[in-house]
Design brief:
Order of helices and strands: HEHHEEEEEEEEEEEHEEEHEHEE
Number of helices: 6
Helix content: 10-25%
Shape: elongated
Largest sheet: 9 strands, mixed
């Protein structure tokens, strides 16, 4: 692959502190718009991506630059906030462009500092290149799909636990049919432990302004819609079955559902079925409260009718022993 493609690069602001103030909103906390100099050359090395014949080469260059930046950031000692608190450090940003009612924000590089327990709002991003990486710590990440564009309503797609490493690094092309300008990669984060993350964003962070969504959760289950099973029965769960889980072995997931996607294999916590996780609601936690833990575990398998409703609600299709999730 030719990694010497000529391309226009991003240009870091020469007056970042002043430019951050131009795009800050009234009352924005100071610890959410801090600036740290010394990383502008990484920003200036990133090519501006577009949907043309050079996209693949430029994306390769972009990922290499982000890799080197990550290696540099790993050498730093970053401030850790108190529990449930959050700090943002901007490493570089484009100079905002004057428009009729103020300024238009550009792309930026950001380090986020997460106090244990802090949860971001459910939010989406503009199209373009996005990079999400854990530098240190552990995060629970929920991804969502939009089910109502007008009212900005989403339903959960999957819950994952992210440890140090890259989990998003890709280019999202412009969608001319999109109703909302910031509906790419709808997700939110919870810091399972104090964490530091690195982000490249196609526009200045919104802090929940005009890019948040309302969550629609699967309805509460009745006791007669579940059957308690033990861990051995869980090992032999069938593809497409749905189980509500509370486990002291994986507390970072909190209460959650699993959708069985394959036969059991060896995992970190032992022999377990292949599955994908989806967050549970407080109403589902109340149901779990009715069943005391046994060896640190409660498994409630949904009845066929309840599982069918669950899969339909979440847009999951089971066909020929294959489980197909939305966004796959």
């Amino acid at each position: 692959m030719n990694t010497l493609v000529k391309a226009a690069n991003y240009v870091a602001s020469e007056n970042p502190v002043e430019d951050i103030e131009k795009i800050s909103y009234p009352g924005q906390p100071e610890n959410r718009k801090r600036y740290q100099a010394g990383y502008e050359h990484y920003f200036n090395s990133l090519p501006v991506l577009s949907e043309d014949e050079t996209l693949e080469e430029k994306l390769f260059i972009t990922k290499e630059v982000m890799k080197h930046l990550s290696e540099k950031l790993h050498q730093n000692e970053w401030e850790m906030p108190e529990a449930n608190d959050f700090i943002r450090t901007i490493l570089s940003l484009e100079e905002p462009l004057p428009i009729k009612d103020g300024y238009k924000e550009g792309a930026e590089l950001v380090v986020a500092h997460w106090g244990q327990g802090h949860t971001s709002p459910i939010h989406g991003h503009a199209t373009g290149y996005m990079h999400e990486e854990i530098i240190s710590g552990k995060m629970r990440v929920n991804t969502y799909r939009i089910v109502d564009d007008i009212n900005r309503v989403v339903r959960p797609v999957e819950t994952t636990i992210q440890t140090p490493g890259v989990f998003v690094s890709d280019y999202a092309p412009h969608n001319p049919e999109a109703i909302n300008s910031r509906e790419t990669l709808v997700h939110n984060f919870t810091a399972v432990e104090p964490s530091i993350s690195l982000h490249f964003l196609p526009e200045h962070t919104r802090d929940g302004r005009d890019n948040t969504f309302t969550l629609e959760e699967f309805p509460a289950l009745w006791r007669d819609q579940v059957v308690r099973i033990d861990s051995k029965e869980g090992l032999y769960a069938q593809i497409g079955e749905v189980i509500l889980v509370r486990s002291t072995n994986v507390p970072e997931y909190d209460d959650h559902f699993i959708v069985i996607t394959g036969h059991s294999v060896m995992k970190t916590h032992g022999f377990r079925p292949q599955e994908r996780s989806i967050m549970a609601s407080k109403n589902h936690s109340k149901l779990l409260d009715m069943f005391p833990l046994t060896m640190g575990l409660t498994l409630l398998k949904l009845t066929k009718q309840a599982a069918k409703a669950f899969l339909m609600f979440h847009g999951i299709i089971v066909k020929d022993k294959e489980v197909i999730f939305p966004n796959d």
